[in-house]
Specification:
heterodimer; A: mainly alpha; MetI-like fold; 66% helix; globular; disordered N terminus; B: Rossmann fold; six-stranded mixed sheet; 21 strands; Multiple sugar transport system ATP-binding protein (chain B); ATP-binding (chain B); ATP binding (chain B); nucleotide-binding (chain B); Transp-assoc_OB_typ1 (chain B)
Chain lengths: 303, 359
Amino acid sequence: MSTTTPPVSAGTSPKAPAIPAGTLARKKLSKPWASLAAIVLAVLWTIPTFGLLVSSFRPERAIKTTGWWTFFSDPQVTLANYEKVLASEGANALFPYFVNSFIIVIPAVVIPMTLATLASYAIAWIDFKGRDVLFVAIFALQIVPIQVTLIPLLTLFVDLGIAGEFASMWLAHSTFALPLAIFLLHNFMREIPRELIEAARVDGAGHVKILFSVLLPLLAPALAAFGIFQFLWVWNDLLVGLVFGGSENRPITVALSNLAGTRGTAWHLLSAGAFVSIIVPLVVFLSLQRYFVKGLLAGGLKG
Amino acid sequence: MATVTYDKATRLYPGGDKPAVDALDLHIEDGEFLVLVGPSGCGKSTSLRMLAGLEDVNGGRILIGDRDVTTVPPKDRDIAMVFQNYALYPHMTVADNMGFALKIAGTPKDEIKRRVQEAAKILDLEDYLARKPKALSGGQRQRVAMGRAIVRQPQVFLMDEPLSNLDAKLRVQTRTQIASLQRRLGVTTVYVTHDQVEAMTMGDRVAVLKDGILQQVDTPRRMYDHPNNVFVAGFIGSPAMNLLTLPVTEGGVLFGDSIHPVERAALAATGKNITLGVRPEDMELAEHGLPVSVDVVEELGADAYIYGTLRQGESDMPVIARVDGRQPPAKGSTVHFQPKRGHVHLFDDNSGLRIETTA
């Protein structure tokens, strides 16, 4: 080996910082102490949930007298809480409200998703007067806080005679979701190359055909993303359910809060109820996350 | 099959003050392969998109056959288009991509299948029908895009630079395939390219555009031998034609220390100078003529190209000439050139238009 290359000055070579910022960040973040910090955070974050899980299996007396951590010194396990919560009859039965939540959540996801798809197609790909103004106006509606709209909406629902019905909650949730949904889907639609739509037009497709045969399959990730967000949002919502739900068709969140609420004395059921309510979003998230795949557009266009 | 007619078709983009396509008058015969060529931004793609219905026509008309399609939406024009980036539907298989238009038209399933098979056979795609576009190579995607057009059996094929994304070797190969396919199918075709070699080799006729204005429509041969103006002369042919601004004298054009004879009538219209065009292969080494100092010699084996400079007065003009490859002049030397008789093009120095001569 030749030794003619001049020795590189150790450590502080001026050429060293030519590493891309992303690589640098990844390097720094994957250092052991950084991982440790992340683990500590994760554990701290999970402890309350873990405590809830432990509590949900403890007998009523134990819950009401000692903290969940005593479980480890004095383990008492029972399924009684879950039995009560999941019963369809009885004073503290949550099952009917569990069903209510489904009845509320499914249309409250489907309605804004459908409307937003149609609206965002029109805004993205149909040239009409005032299109940009309309788009900005719709997005600007995001600024209005939900709380401001509650009383006017309630008055409107009373006038329409649907106050306290499921329909009022469907409408309320859809209304609140639409601006963000249209914004999100519009941006996804704009990213689809113009040539694809032009090719479909030349192939003889009208707007409906273009939307359903060409664009929708490509929009699956965006729709899944929005669907998950909206599902979680509506499922976990307390405010809208509390304001618009009648006594019979309250969602599970309202029923849960009533367990420990003003008149409730069944707060030992709270933890079991909360876990029942967590299961659904968890399943939805895990089953839909496979749609978050990249590269659906790959191959249609060169490069 | 049908003819295509542009009748003073004009496209003015909103907010622009100069039309992208300015009063285009063009008639394309039934079954003809017409190539629209020009530098980027000349309006060739816009012209094609106007015919496809993807671009509004702000003035004039466009006819397919005898039918005025100026305001007809693309789906009702019975045309098929091949896009520069192919625009295949990424979520459909090759077969579905090719059959999409037929499916929309409500063609029976077995008929679609038969026609897709037929097209796949022509394009050598039979083994790939079940694949998605992302599992294909660039050349295969290009063929699928062609197949999508063929399956339709449309009245007109529109192709917007379909070869520009292929590598050089594949491009040459595909060029001949497309041309022969078009002859076989006999479908009227409008083909857009910025590559004048493609234009010359593929088209029955070539239309040269510049700044939205049609410069000349002719057969490739005629375009090469008889350019109508300075722009066409410089654009068609590779290496480009030498366009030299030379002084006019008694009896002809001053060609260095000799005179290139031009009849008096032809010179009458022009002023002190004239633009003289000679193709590189029509330059001959001689004792007298244009003194050119040789800057670069490109030896290609059989031929050599000389890239030199003509110093005349205060202005330098680049000159390209083809010479015998076995004994090219040395770099740095000064040689003299004479144009071949009968292969000289004269253009008006001001208007750039061709001056007809009998010689």
